Amino acid sequence: MKVLGKKTAPYRYLMPTLILMTIFMVIPICMVIGYSFMDKAVVSKNPAFVGLDNYKELLSNSDYWSSVSNTIIFVVVSVVAHLLLGMLFAMLLNSKYFSIRTKTIARVIYILPWVFTASVVAILWKLMLQPSGIVNYILSIFPGVSRNTEWLSNRSIALAVICFINIWCGYPFYMISILAGLQGISGDLYESAAIDGATDSKRFIYITIPQLMPILISIAMLDFIWTLQSFNVIWMLTGGGPVNSTQTLSVYIYKLTFQKVNYSMAATTATVLLLVCVIIAIFYVKQQKKVRK
């Protein structure tokens, strides 16, 4: 009995967490997947099983494909910009050309966007981007620039503005992660390369990038999943408008659920989004296993 108790002890410690995860995550996910195969799910006492009809209807819906297009642009632009900005600021903070005091002040300033909650970010930028806001006031100083630009109401630029705000919010995560990776690279590698006559660009390409690659891949995959599910800032800034120009899949699911009360199609869209996230998560787990080895 004592041997059996020792073998089952880890599972007993994990049991409360597993029970909570099952109740609040596994069961709801299974319910949503089940709703995607039904017609009039939740709103009807006896929803009819329709098989893959909801998926066929979804794939023929123009609003869905518009949301997919906006989501792809939003995710790709955000992840790439996060990576580039994070690398740039991390390299600056890791540079030997600045004093420790300057680096400390810069770290505090650079990390501020990541500290703000989504509601604070949305309110802050909504006020600044109003026609009478500070952004238009600063731009009006330059000749030929209008002071009455509707940044969030202009269909042609609204998505770009949302991307910019999301980039501003998310780059500190990359900066901190990459900075930690840079500080973990042995200085002997750079000294040996310098003795061999390697330029700064070659040292960056052949030493820095390969050493950081596991970190870059991991944070890019995580950021891809987070950005794919991004909802709060977009909803509070534009609500998916104007004319669905900033409507991503997360906003599309929300509208189907709470505005159109179409739980079946919302569950179908959520299931497709879940599948994409699971595929990315599998790659992330495999990457983490390689790093540990």
TrEMBL record:
Domain called ABC transmembrane type-1: residue spans: 68-284
UniProt keywords, alphabetically: Cell membrane, Membrane, Transmembrane, Transmembrane helix, Transport
Subcellular location: Cell membrane
Membrane topology: Multi-pass membrane protein
Residue intervals passing through the bilayer: 12-37, 72-93, 105-125, 157-182, 203-226, 263-285
Record InterPro entries: ABC_transporter_permease, MetI-like, MetI-like_sf
Transmembrane is among the record's keywords: yes
CDD domains: TM_PBP2
Coiled-coil portions: none
Similarity field: Belongs to the binding-protein-dependent transport system permease family.
This protein's name: Sugar ABC transporter permease
Lineage of source species: Bacteria, Bacillati, Bacillota, Clostridia, Eubacteriales
